[in-house]
Design goal:
A: alpha+beta, B: alpha+beta, Beta Polymerase, domain 2, Four Helix Bundle (Hemerythrin (Met), subunit A), 5 domains, 4-stranded mixed sheet, elongated
Chain lengths: 112, 862
């Protein structure tokens, strides 16, 4: 099992969700996030005053999938979230030791 | 054996309920059944041990004590034992409990000595409250009498105030948990405001006052309805689950649950829910009265604000209650006078006071007469505006709605009365969502505190500095009325309904157009938030729909409150911040490209930003002037698209008609006197210093320009519109001055009178000290338009500023192609698209202009 964490543009959330469902991923956790990578941020002016927009709005997704589904899920996210511009986001993948379904104590991939 | 009998009897009770729909009867039957089983089980014990016949009593408490056991409700049994009998009784009580559990009766059993029940413990309020409903089942009657008369009676007498205070606190906390509203899409019919628990509180408060339970027919009807629904839900869920979810609503409507008193048949779920809310309102209002009679206040605490009410106002405010004046000897009833009744609600909205029960009744009874006496038009709008813009408008509107006054003024609101719209996000009925939205907007006016995020501070500034906040609140009231109609889009339906409201209120074109655009576009900002808000195309498209800074400010605030009113967690700080960022980006976009995007060819608009909506607007204008299409197309040709977008079809036609009068008077002026902001529009053939001329004329009259714009078409016809406030109330105090004002402005523009002479004759008033110091910023942009230079001046808003700027521009020979003038509180933001000799300004011209403007602004301010 592996955990996929993806930071994407908020406007791409619906497309990514649809793509993951299409790829057979059913469980997903979504966080409203702020941050920046190479995109840094910029300055906005409003009525003559300057405002720094240094942390940009992002959506962070977390999903845990079986090893054989990882690549499919990653491709689904990339295809749906990519615009080719700076700020499209990042995907991080890490190993998961165990998954437990609280309701019935099922363990392993069956609990996903 | 006993279990089989119990189950058989339960099945009979259920069958009886399914046939009769009588929830009270079913609940009473289950209580009686449990009584009989307890007595039979206890009889076996008492037979075996005669000592149990004295010093011991079996008592029902809580709901069971009231003799009402809903199908899956807990059974609270109190074994009241004298100290001397306790040791002997314990094994028998254990066996009684065991036997009843074996029957399937899940007892919540407590054992107390009578003297342990004579004081109320706030830490165990539930037990104390349950004792108030204590009822004898069996055993030693004397023990029971001692418990009821001496212990419980003593407790209620001695600790009555503490019990009432605890009830007040528990009820308030419970109501707060449900957002202090009964209008939930999926209500808990026991615990929500207006639910069964509130009915119990009414009964307890009555008992504490020693008045017992006096049930009015409507209260009993409401109780019977809720009891039927609770029985239905228990049977449906097979547990003590009192949530009336959508599926349950459908099923209850299908079976006509609770409607047994009338024709019990399938009804529409929306209708059935309205019946539910009507009964819940009856319970809630009764609770408020019971609380008031007990010296309590169940409604959320709001600090009262004092206002002065004149003696002849027709009402008075005493101890936070508004009381209508008693019936006059002449027979005149204040409740029949719309002006008085609306003033009552305005006072309610300003002070946070509530109506006395008698006043509520008198107003509710007077609705037909109020309807006959009501006069619509600007006067009604003034009264509505006073209610909507006051801090506690939400409470006043809820009260108006409950009494039928809101529907009297705005029948369009009736369609969303207690309307349940099923989606996964909303928590409240459509009418309540509207009131929560209005509460949220007023909440933004409050101090956000020192650690508030930037967007919160900015939103507060925005709402406090709106020129005419009543428009935002009116749009809020009407924005979802279309949900009560079938149609493709509720925003379109709401706008259609709003049009007739605005016509009845006889609002001027600018205000009407603002309200209409807010309603039509009220979902646009939420939609834009789902796109990339840093993408230029997204921002451009959104700004294109908003068109003006004032509309953007209102839409931003509206969207904030609309999302927050969906449910308490809907508006995350993340969303609010994105809203603020989109507002900033759209704001910067609004003044760009205005000079380039023009009505370019007859009947359609310039290439890139042309949209179907705009073409439809032109088509609508043309359709209103049959036979004059060609002349009208010539008039429209070359105007910035902003002009067409921000004017209603009627106003455009008015401007067109004014051009036909140029031969009689080349300076055509339309003047609109408003409640707070007045509007003057000049339509004439372009000539130098025209814009500066109007600005100067208004300055000479002491008018404070709030917003302005200036547009020209391809034949050089200009339409300059100025919206201004009358700082010295010249036009308000002297209605006859209005004509003289218009004539004077015309003469000043035409050069037939001297601005300087008028200015020198005007005594300059002492300038107030600004709350916020605004630094002057002057910026040029040659990329915002292909053939003109964009000049943006941000400066302290002081009278004469626009005159100073526009005179400087004309003195240097610069032509104003487009002007967009706006103020935001203390800040004036003036944007001009300038040309000189038909070309953009060069860097030297910009340098000279910057210096001249800096000097002129500084001189005007000093």
């Amino acid at each position: 099992m592996q955990k996929i964490e993806a930071v994407i543009q908020p406007s791409k959330l619906d497309a990514v969700k649809d793509a993951l469902v299409e790829a057979g991923v059913s469980g997903i956790t979504i966080f409203e996030a702020r941050g920046h990578g190479r995109q840094k941020g910029h300055t906005e002016f409003y009525r003559g005053r300057e405002y720094a927009v240094d942390l940009l709005p992002k959506i962070k997704l977390e999903l845990v999938v079986s090893d054989d589904a990882v690549e499919k899920a990653i491709q689904a996210i990339i295809t749906a979230a990519r615009t080719g511009r700076i700020g499209d986001g990042k995907i991080f993948v890490s190993k998961i030791d165990e998954a437990i379904r609280i309701r019935n104590d099922e363990r392993g991939e069956i609990a996903l | 054996m006993l279990r089989a009998e119990y189950e058989r009897r339960l099945t009979e009770i259920r069958r009886g309920f399914e046939q009769s729909g009588d929830g009270l009867k079913a609940a009473a039957a289950r209580a009686a059944l449990v009584d009989s089983l307890i007595l039979r089980t206890w009889a076996v014990e008492a037979e075996a041990d005669p000592k149990l016949r004295s010093g011991f009593a079996l008592c029902a408490v809580g709901g069971y004590g009231r003799g009402l056991l809903f199908p899956y409700s807990d059974i609270d049994l109190l074994c009241c034992v004298e100290a001397s009998a306790a040791a002997n009784a314990k094994p028998s009580i254990r066996r009684l409990s065991q036997s009843l559990w074996d029957c399937g009766i899940q007892l919540a059993l407590s054992i107390r000595r009578p003297e342990e029940c004579d004081h109320f413990q706030p830490g165990n309020a539930e037990f104390g409250l349950s004792l108030m409903d204590v009822r004898y089942i069996g055993g030693d009657q004397k023990i029971f009498d001692r418990l009821r008369e001496k212990s419980v009676g003593k407790m209620m007498q001695r600790d009555g105030k503490a019990i009432a205070a605890e009830l007040e606190k528990l009820t308030r906390d419970r109501h707060a948990k449900y957002g202090d509203t009964l209008f939930h899409l999926e209500p808990n019919i026991k615990d929500c405001p207006g639910g069964l628990r509130d009915a119990h509180v009414c009964q307890w408060l009555g008992s504490l006052r020693g008045e017992g339970t006096v049930e009015s027919p409507e209260f009993h009807e409401a109780l019977a309805f809720l009891a039927a629904v609770r029985c239905f839900l228990h049977y449906r869920h097979e547990r003590d689950d009192n949530i009336l979810d959508w599926q349950a609503q459908d099923a209850a409507a299908e079976l006509g649950i609770g409607l047994s008193g009338r024709v019990r048949a399938s009804v529409d779920p929306a209708y059935w829910m309205r019946v539910y809310f009507r009964y819940a309102r009856i319970i809630e209002r009764r609770l408020i009265r019971e609380a008031e009679d007990s010296g309590l206040r169940i409604e959320a605490e709001t600090p009262l604000r004092r206002i002065k009410v004149s003696r002849d106002a027709g009402f008075e405010i005493k101890s936070g209650r508004i009381e209508l004046a008693p019936l006059a000897p002449s027979g005149i009833d204040a409740a029949h006078e719309p002006d008085i009744v609306l003033a009552v609600f305005a006072a309610m909205a300003r002070t946070g006071a509530t109506l006395s029960p008698a006043t509520e009744e008198r107003i509710a009874d007077a609705i037909p007469l109020l309807s006959a006496n009501l006069e619509e038009g600007p006067g009604l709008w003034l009264q509505l505006d006073a209610i909507l813009t006051a801090e506690r408008a939400g409470a006043a509107l809820r009260s108006m709605h409950a009494l039928g006054v809101l529907e009297l003024l705005l029948p369009e609101f009736h369609g969303i009365d207690a309307l349940v719209i099923r989606d996964a996000y909303h928590r409240y009925t459509v009418d309540e969502h509207t009131f929560v939205l209005i509460d949220t907007l007023h909440g933004l006016e409050g101090d956000p505190g020192p650690d508030a995020p930037e967007w919160r501070v900015k939103f507060r500034t925005m709402i406090r500095e709106l020129q005419n906040p009543g428009l935002l609140y009116l749009a809020a009231v009407l924005h979802d009325t279309g949900k009560g109609r079938s149609g493709a889009s509720h925003a379109v339906e709401s706008a259609r309904l709003a049009r007739s409201v605005l016509a009845r209120l006889e609002m001027d074109a600018y205000d009407s157009s603002m309200v209409m655009r807010l309603i039509e576009n009220h979902l646009e900002m939420s939609a834009a938030l789902r796109r990339d808000i840093f993408d230029a195309d997204t921002v451009r498209a959104f700004a294109g729909k908003v068109q003006t800074h004032e509309a953007l400010r209102m839409l931003t605030l509206f969207t904030y409150a609309d999302i927050a009113a969906v449910h308490p967690d809907a508006l995350t700080p993340w969303k609010a911040e994105n809203l603020w960022r989109l507002c900033m980006a759209a704001n910067n976009q609004l003044d760009r490209n205005v000079d380039d995007e023009r009505v370019h060819t007859l009947g359609s608009l310039d290439g890139t930003a042309a949209s179907k909506a705009r073409d439809e607007k032109i088509a609508r204008v043309l359709a209103l002037a049959p036979g004059e299409e060609t002349a009208l197309e010539n008039f429209l040709n070359g105007f910035p698209a902003r002009y067409v977008k921000t004017r209603s079809a009627d106003v455009i036609l008015q401007h067109f008609a004014m051009t036909r009068l140029f031969e009689q008077e080349p300076f055509q002026i339309a003047f609109q006197y408003g409640n707070a902001v007045h509007e003057i529009t000049l339509v004439t053939q372009d000539r130098p210093r025209l814009f500066a001329g109007v600005a100067s004329a208004l300055a000479a009259w002491g008018m404070n320009i709030v917003t302005a714009d200036a547009f020209a078409n391809s034949t050089g016809v200009v339409v300059d519109t100025f919206r201004f406030t009358d700082s010295f109330r010249t036009l308000e105090l002297n209605a006859t001055e209005r004509e003289r004002f218009v004539a004077s402005v015309r003469d000043l523009i035409a050069g037939r009178a001297s601005v300087e002479k008028l200015l020198s004759g005007r005594r300059r008033g002492r300038r107030r000290v600004p709350r916020l110091k605004v630094e002057t910023r002057i910026e040029f942009d040659n990329t915002a338009a292909a053939h003109s230079t964009l000049l943006q001046v941000v400066a302290q808003d002081v009278s004469g500023l626009l005159r100073a700027i526009s005179m400087t521009l004309s003195s240097l020979g610069h032509n104003v192609e487009v002007a967009l003038v706006d103020t935001e509180g203390e800040t004036a933001i003036d944007v001009f698209y300038l040309t000189n000799g038909g070309l953009q300004l060069n860097s030297e011209q910009e340098r000279v202009l910057r210096e001249a403007l800096t000097a002129a602004i500084s001189e005007n301010a000093s």
